[in-house]
Amino acid sequence: MKAENYTARRDTIDGWPINIVTYRIGGKYYCTIDNVDPGARFARAEGPARDEVERKALEKAKKYLGQTRRFPTTTMKPESGN
Amino acid sequence: MDVLVSTDWVKDNLENPKVRIAEVDVDTAAYDQGHVPGAVGWNWTTQLCDTLVRDVIPKDKLEALLGASGIDNDTTVVVYGDNNNWFAAWALWQLKLYGHQDVRIMDGGRKKWLAEGRELTTDAAKPPKKVYKAKDQDRSIRASLLEVQNAVERRSAALVDVRSPAEFTGEILAPPGLPETCQRGGHIPGARSMPWAKLANDDGTFKSPVEIKALYDGVGVKGDKPIIAYCRIGERSSHSWFALKYLLGYQDVKNYDGSWTEWGNLVGAPVEKP
Q: Which fold has domain B140-263?
């Protein structure tokens, strides 16, 4: 048994870069999505068809990335006076 | 001793009784999809930590895990995993912490093994049980909160933040798509940013020591003083710790496994941003 039809590509969701890796082992397709930096896998799906598992994994990825907040990168200083 | 082995080396040693392969993935379901024949699977969320107290795996639990995995003190252990061996490096660091002599990483990890179309199995390995005797923790490779606080105050160590640039600046509190696990963003005062992923090639293998040295030299980390690496929970920094310690050969390198989930939640701890 080997991983077959292995593909890896890069895309973005809401401005966040993602890696989409899909392959088949035995009769099942697996799709995993990571956040490129640091490469943490945060969405995955498995099933009998490539298109279906990629669609499901992307739906999950969009949901989770939608929960990621951006914060100001400078320290807030209190206004002087008053 | 080679601390990095190739996928070819692993293939050639699958039947070697002195070698035990262990898969450790971020994605704990990956092992069951298919793994290197004969490899045992270790779950980092339950088997490579203390599940009650926040801590590394207790000594007796490690001894039981290794014994059940067919590993004794003379076994050559080869760890590999997904995401550029992220958690495989975490496992290696813990084995080194408890004094295991011969533990190596399969360069490129699961990604490379799969991409090369190498043999996989879904059969769980059933190695013969062995007796393992761990040493006491080698604290020369593990930094505590107190040591990091002292290092910040005295500027006695080079602190390396290996998280992504957006985590370093505090723009995000956790990697995109993952739950936030700290109260404040930013980094430990004085830390240099060297994202762990920069040390890896696209195929998951480590860059050459020359390339890695150039990266660290570029941020002023040259091995001329103690180094403390940290990330969010200590696993990405295990990868960087491995590179600094074994690929560059720097002697005094510690992994601060408390990392940002400790520092960024600590009341009163100084934070620098960006």
A: Oxidized Rhodanese; domain 1 (3.40.250)
State ipTM: 0.78
Q: Which CATH superfamily is domain B4-137 in?
A: Rhodanese-like domain (3.40.250.10)
What is the SS3 assignment for B59?
A: helix
Residues B177/B170, Cβ–Cβ less than 8 Å? no
- For β-strands B49-50 and B227-230, DSSP reports them as unpaired
**CATH 3.40.250.10 segments of chain B:** 4-137, 140-263
In chain A, residues with a C-beta closer than 8 Å to the C-beta of B34 are: 1, 3, 25-26
Domains of chain A: 3-65 (3.30.67)
In chain A, which residues have their Cβ closer than 8 Å to the Cβ of B273?
Answer: 73-75
* Prediction pTM value: 0.92
| Non-local CB neighbours of B48 within 8 Å, separated by 6+ positions | B24, B42, B56, B57, B65, B87, B90, B91, B94
Q: Does A76 touch chain B (CB under 8 A)?
A: no
CB contact under 8 A, B176 and A16: yes
Average pLDDT of chain A to the nearest whole number: 88
pLDDT tens figures, B74-105: 999 999 999 899 999 999 999 999 999 999 99
- Per-residue pLDDT of B149-200, as tens digits, reads 999 999 999 999 999 999 999 999 988 888 888 999 999 999 999 999 899 9
